[in-house]
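User: Please predict the structure of the protein below. I'd like the answer in structure-token form so I can feed it into my own downstream comparison script.

Assistant: Understood. Taking the following sequence of 306 residues as input:
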Amino acid sequence: MGGIASGQETFTLYVENDGTFIKPLYRTDRHYTDGVKLAFTHQPDVNFLKDYSRWNGFGENDGEVRTALGYFFGQNIYTPDHADKPAARAEHDRVFAGWLYGGIFAQRAADNQMEHLELNLGMIGPAASGSAIQNFVHDVISADKAKGWTSQLGNEFAADVTWLRRQRVADRYFARTENFDSHLEYGATVGTLHRNANLGIIFRYGMNLPNDFGPGRLEAPASACIDKPAELQTLYLFTRLGGKLVQYDRFLSGLDTEPAVGQFQVGAVYRYKSFEISYSETFLTREYKEQGSTDSYGAINLMWRF
């Protein structure tokens, strides 16, 4: 049992935003307001990936193990509510913050399970260029500029490590069929920005479901441990029900954070040959006790396999 190099390589662009730019009929611009990540993955035949594929007995009695490496960079932007109207803001709200980062991840997958291990390094504060990017975008879309970036979090080097596992559910009520499958997802993040544990379940229903581990998202990239997909059109709908236990979130500094946050995501994926596009919306419960209303954001993912 070892890592297999299939030559599969991908570029994936993840874009998340809470306003009309991606989420029609909504005009919010607050809290986690924007995220962009570009990831490249490949499946090299290298010794340390072979060792990783065997580590801790992964994949025993579950088929051969495939491995992949990924590299990424991105930026997240956080603001208080009423980013362009300081007088309308609540006394206790999120602070302005940017997060500019890059990193590497390793993945391994067998027939019914996949693991993702990621190292994320970067800067928060003025060095992350959150103010410049947000105001540039607002100029392009003719929106009011945000006011208050002079009080953003200061420059800090930051690092997070994330571990995530997805398992195909084999229970008779949720077992894979020609048009349906489901995956259990759980993991944890530990670092100077986030410390949390998460749990969720993903359901997919559609035409020509791919033999992978479900759709990716900005905080949990899609599995790269797959053969080159068949040249069939794929179209499916998905939902993800999840939640996380939060011990620390640097971007909620000074607020009374909620210990548990629920998430509900709904979306659609279309794939034809080497190209894939997905759209989804994610709805969150309150992340801190002073929060006036719940948040949501839209996401568009573009993937090209070659």
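That's the full token string. Residues 7 and 262 are 38 Å apart (CA to CA).
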